[in-house]
Amino acid sequence: xxxxxxxxxxxxxxxxxxxxxxxxxxxxxxxxxxxxxxxxxxxxxxxxxxxxxxxxxxxxxxxxxxxxxxxxxxxxxxxxxxxxxxxxxxxxxxxxxxxxxxxxxxxxxxxxxxxxxxxxxxxxxxxxxxxxxxxxxxxxxxxxxxxxxxxxxxxxxxxxxxxxxxxxxxxxxxxxxxxxxxxxxxxxxxxxxxxxxxxxxxxxxxxxxxxxxxxxxxxxxxxxxxxxxxxxxxxxxxxxxxxxxxxxxxxxxxxxxxxxxxxxxxxxxxxxxxxxxxxxxxxxxxxxxxxxxxxxxxxxxxxxxxxxxxxxxxxx
Length: 316
Prior knowledge:
316 residues, alpha+beta, Ribosomal Protein S5, domain 2, 4-stranded antiparallel beta sheet, 9 helices, 13 strands
């Protein structure tokens, strides 16, 4: 029985989350946590996962309709991805992740990228990683309606990626940043937070100034990475977090961790990803690990993944 498997790295946003949606630059890195998507020959198409748990499901028994925003969102990504392919062959699709979903590590993007990569190869196509990134971005945008290409490109291509201002280009940065990362459960999805930020944009005339400042922080952080200037990089982390806090996308738990990081002398710390809970990154150190663990964060494997999505065929 023929199977195709895609191993997709997850990601950490280093700088520029939210501002990248409005044309400002951003930097993200692929990490060693991953999602595994396997497509196997079958007489019907099914999707299963034991690790992407979806809670709080309500079912209308009269119509057998699942009333859950999270379930609808996750299934929308899967269905839109499968619908992209004009030619369809029945297959069993299994999705397994080393982390919880919706914690700011790009799991939704990884689901799309993994299915695009594995199912296209299952159909006999050989897409490049860049082609996978572009297709996945189009699918993600169709489901979300708003957002950036950062997540789909980062998990497709791997490495530390810089996304320039008002550009569809992407630049691979040479370097290997030591990061301590961890996460807690979020109270809002990325799509919900993006809508909240858009509402702020529509009502607050200071919004564009904040976005521009975040963009300037990203440019300074890019230079710090290229020069291996850890001190400057850490300073930019604290500043970036403060600007995100002004947008209302952080949370009390994230703010407390970042404040404590500064108090105990860590070089840098900030929220990572959409916010509303989720992920935090710090300049790598044993004290950073102790801080995150003491606040109930689950540490993640933040080692750099340079390869992006990897596809292999399996003969059972």
